[in-house]
Amino acid sequence: MDYQVKNADGRLGILMPGLGAVATTLIAGVEAIKKGLSQPVGSLTQMGRIRLGKRTEDRHPLIKEFVPLAGLEDIVFGGWDVYADNVFEAASTAKVLEPMLLHAVKAELEAIRPMKAVFDRAYARNLDGTHVKEGADKMALAEMLMDDIREFKEANNCDRLVMVWCGSTEIYIEESEVHQSIEAFEAGLRNNDPAIAPSMIYAYAAIKSGVPFANGAPNLTVDIPAIVELAKENGIAVSGKDFKTGQTLMKTILAPGLHARALGVKGWFSSNILGNRDGYVLDAPENFKTKEVSKLSVLDEIFKPESNPELYGDMYHKVRINYYPPHGDNKESWDNIDIFGWLGYQMQIKINFLCRDSILAAPLVLDLALFTDLAQRAGMSGIQEWLSFYYKSPQTAEGLAPEHDIFKQLMKLQNTLRHMMGEDLITHLGLDYYQDLVDTL
Ligand SMILES: NC(=O)c1ccc[n+]([C@@H]2O[C@H](COP(=O)([O-])OP(=O)(O)OC[C@H]3O[C@@H](n4cnc5c(N)ncnc54)[C@H](O)[C@@H]3O)[C@@H](O)[C@H]2O)c1
Questions:
Q1: Which of 70, 98, 99, 129 is the most buried (most CB within 10 A)?
Q2: Whose CA is nearest to atom 17 of ligand 1?
Q3: Element (H, E) at 59
Q4: What atom of ligand 1 comes closest to residue 281's alpha carbon?
């Protein structure tokens, strides 16, 4: 593949269905950073560096100086929500950021009002907002979203748009007939097929409007053949699913290390308490199921029990999420890991992570938006597996197992950037530093 990456000229609109805790923390954060009040900690696009060439060359530019990314000054935010609150009000309700910081960017946040959502309580029964579109059928709703997208682009003088799903986790839906082809999907939109969730309607509208889409929740959304086909047909980049933050982030940092040292694992029990609206939505069992499937998949893929039965064949893995309002967005997670070493001797690891959900998620939304826009400008369409780094449940081509190990995911991401820019890929072989050794081979 030979990429010709277009420059990031003009303004980039970041559209988010769901202006809740994560989205408002991102928007307020970017506005605060633009005013010099804060730093974009946790964002690879803003603070990360990338090694180029051989170690002896000592080239480590900032990623944002290596690849052409939209600058924070050129970003415009917009979105939809089932509640009519502007972003200042929604951020105040979410209680993630201090009132002082929110007041410093109040005018910018108040100016962003959500557009009416495509929503149905059948997909998230714990939400009761009424700021919702009405249409004859799901196709009519998709067309209304396309109008919103077009009007937003014009009104804000944007050159390009990206969409990142920051809406609630929807009920568990299995892939079925209606998801198999564009024709079946479009027929399903017209006859209100219940297997087409609101997030899929946004994805359809985005792709039809030429807007790439990243999915931050564990819903199927773009991870169905019909949408992948539509994305390819229209030359649009898509990726998903479920932002990798908190407990799963820790899992995909620690598990590759245990696996690398051939240490065995007998059990991994993960429990969480959180009290934000996300936690409230996940309190409904049919919504929790969607999250559970996403969270459970990571360990099997890293440990591969079928090829390592002595070490991981009996591993018991359990994940619980408990809604606990007093903690708000400050999620607390506990992991008890029963491992064993030499001769089967047992040991335990305990992790107690007192994290802040939206503080971990906001920089991921920024990076996903900027990298998705980059992919689109590089002419990369369909599934963007190189963005697996950001997801709990990375979307891959059919028949391809996802890579969950965060270090391999980072290598894949960095090599993709090097590849796009015509730099040598880095394999970490390093034999060429030892010329006498190479000569003997
Ligand atoms: N914060 C994290 O660490 C994290 C990690 C992984 C995934 N996520 C996912 O990100 C999403 C956002 O999380 P959050 O903490 O901001 O939740 P939140 O409840 O604060 O915000 C979600 C918002 O989406 C809105 N919404 C729901 N359905 C909608 C629709 N059809 N159209 C438009 N708006 C809709 C809700 O009204 C709400 O305001 C959730 O799905 C969550 O599971 C978050």
A1: 70
A2: 278
A3: none
A4: 19
In a domain, 318, yes or no: yes
Residue 2 lies in a domain: no
What would the pLDDT profile of 313-364 be if each residue is shown by its tens digit?
999 999 998 999 998 888 899 999 999 999 999 999 999 999 999 999 999 9
Residues 21 and 114 in one domain: yes
The pLDDT value recorded for residue 438 is 73
Q: H or E stretch including 78? A: strand 75-81
Alpha carbon of 279 to ligand 1 centroid (Å): 10
* 13 neighbors 158 (Cβ within 8 angstroms): yes
Q: Is 328 in the pocket of ligand 1 (CB under 6 A)?
A: no
Q: Residue 255 belongs to a domain with what CATH number?
A: 3.30.360.10
Q: For residue 189, which of 173, 202, 206 has the smallest C-alpha distance? A: 202
> CB of 242 closer than 6 A to ligand 1?
yes
Cβ-proximal residues to 296 (8 Å cutoff; 6+ apart), any chain: 317, 319
Q: Average pLDDT of 11-15?
A: 98
Query: Distance, CA 120 to ligand 1 centroid (Å)?
Result: 15
- Ligand 1 lined by 118 (C-beta under 6 Å): yes
On whether both 157 and 33 belong to a single domain, the answer is yes
Report pLDDT digits (tens) over 133-158.
Answer: 999 999 999 999 999 999 999 999 99
DSSP conformation class of 330: -
Query: Is residue 5 in a domain?
Result: no
Residue tagged 């040292």 (tokens): 261
Say whether pLDDT at 52 is over 80: yes
Strand order across the beta sheet in which 316-323 lies: 316-323, 264-274, 332-340, 346-354
